[in-house]
Amino acid sequence: MPVSPSPSPSPSRSRSRRRPLAALALVLTAPLLGLTGAASAAADGGQVATTANAQIGKGCSSFYGCPHPGAWCADFARWVWGQGGAQTSGLGGAAYSFVTYGRQRGTIHSTPQVGDAVVYATAANWSSGWANHVNVVVAVSGDTITTIGGNESNSVKKTTFNWRTNGNPVNAGAIRAFVGAVWTAPPANTNPASLPAGTLIKGPGSATVKVVVSGAGLSITGDDVTRDGYDLSTIVPVTDAAFNALPSVLPNGSVLIDQSGTDRTVYASTSGVSLPLNGAEFTAYGYDTRPLMGVPTSYIANTTGRPLPDQSLVKAPGDATVKLLVGAAGFALTMDDVNAMGLDLGRTVEVPPSYFTSLPTTLANKTLFKEPGNATVKVAAGGAGAALTLNDVNALGYDLSQTRTIPSHAYSAIGTTPAEGTLLLAPGDATVWLMTGGRKHGLTGAEWNAGGYRDADIVRVPAAFLAALPTT
């Protein structure tokens, strides 16, 4: 039977779309993807906050350079700013260096913003041009702010307080200045998968531009930019690590279409392959309820017309049957097959019904196969199976590591007579044999040339297998 896939810190003193699709009669909204602009200054401060939050609880890490182990709040703040893309020239190990920075660049302001440096000092120290401490703002809510600073009780600490009423929030004197950073460039995003669909991204170490779609990063070509309408002025910079870590294919079950509208076919994504959907199954099996994502034309070209990965387990919506893919062939599995072959039904993926029902049950020529519990390996030749000895394997040049296990019922159903038109060759025999009418026929040189046959189509079989076939 078919189976179903089942307290306040005390800082140390610091140094100072398209129209209806013909097949689906489906109206798409345009554009399919909302392209996103480049990162703003607010995003810069957000990156500072993200970086600082990730350091909570850490000590005088080598990340901050830590040239002043006993007074490293300024080292920490400078490092966090740098990670966010800020200019840090002129900042040193003294907290007061941030005041000098702000005065020189005109970035000292009266109200806090996320990403700001906060400079603290007692009245006496401030009047003499010296500061006690510096940390950074990671959140603002009305008059309440949250700061994170280094060397607060000798570690990185977070503190939340009312900045207007608290005269000594981190035991380092009163707030004397909020200093904004000057950004060298938009900071690199570290989580591009969370960006809106259609956002263009690029890592500093890559010449490639990608578009974010359903959490994946799909490469775009120069041709895609023109025909698909991508705007390269909107590229959002991301870190190389995040850029390279993005999946390069859409998640299973995604529904997609060519962004340019050149190809009106709607596809479902399975294991990085784009499988076409017909109009009936698009509506009958719920594909029409999923977001329809526009993708680069080149992505469609690169992910269609090829088989799913070998050994995939597939099923169609509404069908309990699971099939095992061996090459392009699909074999229905019983629960006995699953147990005998040690298959994990949890890795079953969904495919469109039209694809599922069209899977051939004949192995591709030259496939090595066996059944569970049987050591005999056979090579597929025109739908037949030729048993191989170890000597045969060596003589014919086959690689046993490429052997695939198929269900016993499928193994038993494979005969010994190759199909019409199969080309066969045995070791030690210069003749290429053609199967015709259930018999083998030795091709002459003239017949080979006239027939347009190709060496790549010849299946090498054991001499004993060839000898057992009747001759014309």
Written account of the structure:
The protein has helices at 41-53, 73-83, 97-105, 123-127, 222-228, 240-245, 279-284, 297-303, 335-341, 353-358, 390-396, 408-413, 445-451, 463-468; strands at residues 108-109, 117-121, 133-141, 144-152, 155-162, 174-179, 200-202, 209-213, 216-220, 236-237, 255-258, 266-270, 273-276, 292-295, 313-315, 323-326, 329-332, 349-350, 368-370, 377-381, 384-388, 404-405, 423-425, 433-436, 439-442, 458-460. It is built from 14 helices and 26 strands. The longest helix has 13 residues, at 41-53. The strands form six sheets. It has a six-stranded antiparallel β-sheet with strand order 1-6-2-3-4-5. The chain has a four-stranded mixed β-sheet with strand order 9-8-7-10. Strands 13-12-11-14 form a four-stranded mixed β-sheet. The two termini are 43 Å apart. With 472 residues, the chain is α+β, with helices and mostly antiparallel strands. The radius of gyration is 33 Å and the shape is elongated. Mean pLDDT is 89; it is low at 1-43.
**Low-confidence residue ranges:** 1-43
Helix content: 10-25%
Largest β-sheet summary: 6 strands, antiparallel
What number is the mean pLDDT? Answer: 89
Into which percentage range does the β-strand content fall? 15-25%
Global structural class = alpha+beta
Enumerate the strands of the largest sheet in spatial order, edge to edge or round the barrel: 1-6-2-3-4-5
Number of helices: 14
Shape: elongated
Distance between the termini: 43 Å
Oligomer: single chain
Count of β-strands:
26
Which value, in Å, is the CA radius of gyration? Answer: 33 Å
